[in-house]
Amino acid sequence: QVHLVESGGGVVPPGRSLRLSCAASGFTFSSFGMHWVRQAPGKGLEWVAVILYDGNNQYYADSVKGRFTVSRDDSRNTLYLQMNSLRAEDTAVYYCAKDPLWFADRPEYPQHWGQGTLVSVSS
Amino acid sequence: QPVLTQPPSTSASLGASVTLTCTLSSGYDDYKVDWYQQRPGKGPRFVMRVGPGGIVGSKGDGIPDRFSVLGSGLNRYLTIKNIQDEDESDYHCGADYGSGSNFVYVFGAGTKVTVL
């Protein structure tokens, strides 16, 4: 049973940094790509980033490119999202999600999702 | 990259059927679309993937047989038959787009389904 638990959200002033974590269990974490997706209050879903199973390739949405970095620690079964230069428009619930294909050299889609962690960027 | 268009809301009486539409932008009629269900206050749940020929792969974990999909032209449909109270949710469609060494995943704005 895939289980994903996000943490690290909170209130942060504009321009500051925050790091989110996603603890994974129930599957072989090191074999799968992992996504971050966010949802602003009352809005739809926005894909943020993905990292492949080997950590060597990451892809980002234009809205976060150059400010956010996705990484993984397979020894801890944990996915991270380092968010720098935060803006008010980054306020959202952030979800991590597992990709369906193992050892894939290209992502597919966010298949299994966590419950999310809320990030609020406000002075 | 494709743009996915969804109507903002729809409703159906308990036990009736409802069909949700996700429309791809012009030129993307061969694309697959993923459907997600999001119950109030919860994280999204993958429902199934649909291409021009219908379902692609398997349904998501625990998705009832009442849920089915169809693809036609630029439209990707999700039909819920015998709709139940627990089906009242937001439904999102998404699609991946890769050009060369790039990857992007895009979502529609979502459709809110109300069960009357």
Report on the structure:
The complex is a heterodimer of chains A (123) and B (116). Helix content of chain A is 0%, strand content 52%. Chain A has strands spanning 3-7, 10-12, 18-25, 32-39, 45-51, 58-60, 68-73, 78-83, 92-102, 112-113, 117-121. Chain A starts with a strand and ends with a strand. The model of chain A has no long low-confidence stretch (mean pLDDT 97). Chain B is mostly beta strands and 116 residues long. Chain B has strands at 4-5, 9-12, 18-24, 33-38, 45-51, 54-56, 67-72, 75-80, 89-97, 104-107, 111-115. Chain B is globular. The model of chain B has no long low-confidence stretch (mean pLDDT 96). The chains are: A mainly beta (123), B mainly beta (116). The A-B interface holds A 35, 37, 44-47, 50, 59, 61, 95, 100, 106-116 and B 34, 36, 42-46, 49, 57, 60-61, 92, 94, 96, 98, 102-110.
Low-confidence runs of at least 5 consecutive residues of chain A: none
Summing up helix and strand content along with how strands pair, one would put the structural category of chain B as: mainly beta
Number of helices of chain B: 0
Provide a count of the helices of chain A. 0
Computed over alpha carbons, the radius of gyration of chain B is 14 Å
The number of distinct β-strands of chain A equals 11
End-to-end separation of chain B: 36 Å
Strand content of chain A: over 45%
- Overall body shape of chain A: globular
Broad structural category of chain A? mainly beta
**Biggest beta sheet attributes of chain B:** 7 strands, mixed
> Care to count the β-strands of chain B?
11
Question: In brief, what are we looking at here?
Answer:
The complex is a heterodimer of chains A (123) and B (116). With 123 residues, chain A is mainly beta. Helix content of chain A is 0%, strand content 52%.
